[in-house]
Amino acid sequence: MSMISLGKSVKWWEKGLQPNMKEITGAEDLVESLLKAGDKLVVVDFFSPGCGGCRALHPKLCQLAEMNPDVQFLQVNYEEHKSMCYSLNVHVLPFFRFYRGAEGRLCSFSCTNATIKKFKDALAKHKPDRSSLGPPKGLEEKELVALGANRDLSFVYNPQPEHTQQEVAPPPLPPVPIVSAAGSISPSLPLPLPLPIPLKSTSESTQDDKDKKLVSSGR
């Protein structure tokens, strides 16, 4: 009977979980969970089943998750995802990273029950709703590149350019101002067509011919 009860016992990191707490299954799950969170504040909790500090801190984290239902908590089991944690440069436990929207990573730190104030201060600082322009950023690009280069992971990173050459149209040229003779600048308008030169009348042309003859004869 005791063996059966031990087999069905709940692991300490599974006790007291709130609806806004989720255990990550891999690199792809972590990346997608951060992107799906949108502008919501996300706390990534790196823990290990054999870490005494992680175990002691877990009940307090569950309480904080219950008190802050609008914050998403993501749990990463270090023992199951050692290679992924190494690529993310996580080498001390318990360890936390805060993310939100287009801002991406807000802060990262390690704390225990004795220094829980550090976690509470970070939560109070970053919790206020702030609208961030643009799509959620999630992990930093260098972290995504590191995950994609990790042969132990089945994660593929295909960076997508923000704009392709076909989508980006060259900006329109600004209108060239026209400087008048007086030095003032007028808006760019189509230049007027040259006025037709008036034809001389017969009398005027005859008079000009007489003048020319007089001048030539005078020489």
UniProtKB/TrEMBL annotation:
Superkingdom to which the source organism belongs: Eukaryota
SUPFAM superfamilies attached to this UniProt entry: Thioredoxin-like
Keyword Magnesium carried by entry: no
Alphabetical UniProt keywords: Disulfide bond, Electron transport, Redox-active center, Transport
PROSITE patterns attached to this UniProt entry: THIOREDOXIN_2 (PS51352)
Gene Ontology biological-process annotations: cell redox homeostasis
Family matches, as InterPro entries: Thioredoxin-like_sf (IPR036249), Thioredoxin_domain (IPR013766)
GO cellular component, one term: chloroplast
Region spans: Disordered: 193-219
Biased composition (Basic and acidic residues): 207-219
UniProt cross-references to Gene3D superfamilies, sorted A to Z: Glutaredoxin
Keyword presence, Disulfide bond: yes
The Thioredoxin domain, residue ranges: 10-128
Family: Belongs to the thioredoxin family.
Protein name: Thioredoxin domain-containing protein
Provenance organism: Ambrosia artemisiifolia
